[in-house]
Amino acid sequence: LSGNSKNRKSLQEPRFDYYNYEAPELDISDCELPHVIEIYDFPQEFRTEDLLRVFCSYQKKGFDIKWVDDTHALGVFSSPITARDALSSKHMMVKIRPLSQATRAAKAKARACAEFLQPAKPRPETSAALARRLVISALGVRSQRTKAERDAELKKLQEARERKRLEAKQREDIWEGRDQAAV
């Protein structure tokens, strides 16, 4: 613009080739999420209930499903031992493999939801006594439950409290290295 007689062409080569960019492979080792497996190659019509039915023997031990897409899901077990046991079993309608051998989408889902993929724990036993008492007191009506029913419910709650206290004491004794036979 200033009338400089020299035509200098200075092209700078880009440092990165953005047109041919490939995301790095998500590498998840076997020790990272050992209680999670990939369930794949099942019909698109399958729903959560169908997958839970396939793994019904693990329901009591703790098992949950996280969907990746129509034909891929993540199976979350309560422990790595249970997951290894599931990997060794054969299923007719689904295929399973460890998360380290999973598809890129399944690994990405596992990475994104890692905090939600903690080992499944069974829900604690509950009682409707507190809810019933709150509703009855809020409405200002008398309870229709007999004294025997109330006493049975109270006894059940006391047993649950005692069981929880005993389990906590046993955990503490084990942690402290105290002798269990002396208790």
**Roughly what fraction of the amino acids lie in strands?**
5-15%
In terms of per-residue confidence, which ranges show pLDDT below 50 for 5 or more consecutive residues? Answer: none
**CATH topology of the largest domain, what is it called?**
Alpha-Beta Plaits
* Count of helical regions: 5
Structural class computed from helices and strand pairing: alpha+beta
Largest sheet: 4 strands, antiparallel
Determine the mean pLDDT. 83
Using the 3D structure, state the CATH architecture of the largest domain: 2-Layer Sandwich
The dominant shape is: elongated
CATH homologous superfamily title of the largest domain: RRM (RNA recognition motif) domain
User: Which CATH class of the largest domain is shown?
Assistant: Alpha Beta
Portion of residues in helices?
A: 25-40%
Quick take:
This protein has five helices and four strands, in the order βαββαβααα. The protein is α+β, with helices and mostly antiparallel strands.
Structure, explained:
With 183 residues, the protein is α+β, with helices and mostly antiparallel strands. The chain has two domains: 36-116, RRM (RNA recognition motif) domain (Alpha-Beta Plaits, 2-Layer Sandwich), CATH 3.30.70; 128-176. Helix content is 36%, strand content 12%. The protein is built from five helices and four strands, in the order βαββαβααα. The longest helix is centred in the last third of the chain and has 30 residues, at 147-176. It is elongated, with a radius of gyration of 29 Å. 16% of the residues are buried. The mean pLDDT is 83. InterPro entries: Nucleotide-bd_a/b_plait_sf, R3HC1/R3HCL. This is R3H domain and coiled-coil containing 1 like. Residues 143-174 form a coiled coil. Keywords: Coiled coil.
